[in-house]
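Hello again, I could really use a second opinion on something today. I owe you a coffee for this, so here goes:
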Amino acid sequence: MSGEVFIITAPSGTGKTTLLKELLAGDPRLRFSISFTTRPPRPGEVEGKDYFFVTPEEFARLRDRGDLAEWVEQYGYGYGTSRQRVQETLDSGADVVFDIEPRGARALKREFPQGTFIFILPPSWEQLELRLQLRGKMEPAEIARRLERGRAEVKEVSWYDYLVINDNLETALSQLRAIVTASRCRTASLWPGLAPQFLPG
């Protein structure tokens, strides 16, 4: 039985990283999709765990050969998902989780139309701005830029399958787990493998 695809989008500061860490830690069937990037590694980032770090030339070859299920250029760097790696993971029966912005999510919608698309929102813009400020490492201009980008991303919410509001971490995590469970129970996913048992001959 092939695995499921979960695509998760959220504006910066929503708490998506914490939610995904908890979701993945509590479900051994889930695998996080690791992207290729031309961005240099940040302190503490590990090759093959956080990203696959490649040169711009290597990235261009992957893109031009059609090896990327989706790709974007952001802040001068390329980011993309290996079609082969995702398919191999799905064929193994594991589920793949993407942390991705709306442009990439739209590309994955074309690649994996059976996927489950989830958008995570903060309880309010005021709370989102406060969370960004409390990080203590961003200039006001950077906070304003992230909020502007977040507003553009929220315009895409309507085509996602599920909406989770991260007002309370445990509640939001419980809702994410429920969505994962429900998606795994889809008839289209289960019945092809079960039908021979119930409809012999």
Remarks:
- The mean pLDDT is 93.
- The chain is about 45% helix and 20% strand.
- Residues 5-184 form a domain with the Rossmann fold fold (CATH 3.40.50.300).
- The first strand starts at residue 5 and ends at 9.
